[in-house]
Amino acid sequence: MRITDIREATAAIGSEMSNAYVDFSQMTISVVAVESDTFRNGKAVTGYGFCSNGRYAQGGILRERLIPRIQAAAAADLLDESGQNFDPRQIRKIMLTNEKPGGHGDRAVAASAVDMAVWDLLAKLEEKPLWRVLSERYSGGDHDARVLVYPGGGYYYPGKGLQRLREEMRGYHDQGYKAVKMKIGAAPLAEDLARIEAVIDEVGSGGDLAVDANGRFDLDTALAYGDAMQDYGLFWFEEPGDPLDYSLNAELTAAYSGAIATGENLFSLQDARNLARHGGMRPDIDWLQFDPALCYGLTEYLDILEVLEGLGWPRRRHIPHGGHQLALAMAAGLQLGGSESYPGVFQPFGGFADDTVVEGGRAEPGEHIGIGMEAKTAMFSEIQRLVGA
Questions:
Q1: Number of C-beta neighbours around residue 195 at 10 A
Q2: Is the model's pTM score more than 0.85?
């Protein structure tokens, strides 16, 4: 068994929307195909992956460093002990050869796209949904039949007022979502509070609303927002300050009694461990949002889970960022706290399979083999256009 080809391409997912830090007009992602020498129904079994939104495509790193290292490796070095399937850990080790420690930025994003494709391929070769592979390997065969999901939305658009914000959130409820998320921090505090109150009025409870500042605030601003939002009883206050400013996060958690959520812009086990050690995060209240399509992949995410469990963090306090099918499969198979969803943004890559039904704020992972990308028609058509054989 061997890998016969690895292809990468850049996909454009730009739009007019923005959060508190960036606009997405030029946003791109990397898409990867890892092709094997196993054939089924006349086609080579191929795994597909991509990196999450927010960090741009990583074609240079993929073409010049990571992919050539895998292609140069002996075929046996990419396999597990049985020799019957690929080993994501071995492949991670090989593609990161001669990379210095630290600096977990763009290379982590590039590696994540490859890692997603490898896990998709591995599950396809086992002829199982990825969530079932994860359940059997890491959860003693247990899994969640229905996963808590929430839509990432409430972005800022030119000319978007309270009425359009209300309509957006009402639309998510009509799609079966219960908890929703909106952006804050790109408007003055008073304006953001009016936006928050409008959405609470629409969804019926602060407990069904999460707000996300995308790392925009300094300490004084984070404290001011926390104080102003204290009585709303929000689902969570997400990424209030710079993701590496653990001191800011710790001071905010000491002052804000509600839940804090963060971690999507931490790209390594080392950074995740530092957040748990120094960020003031509370395992019984707060949420961890590491993104498997940004932080070196699902393989690194599994290491993060193991280490943080040793520091008192149960799996249920992890809700992976990303809003894509990989996160849903992980939440089901690893019995995490839930999964983000992008039903209306970052298309065609955001969201789940076409036949995924969201009801009462929960979704079933489905029985599609691998990650199930083939069951998201518009996305898979674009993947085939970009990296098809």
A1: 22
A2: yes
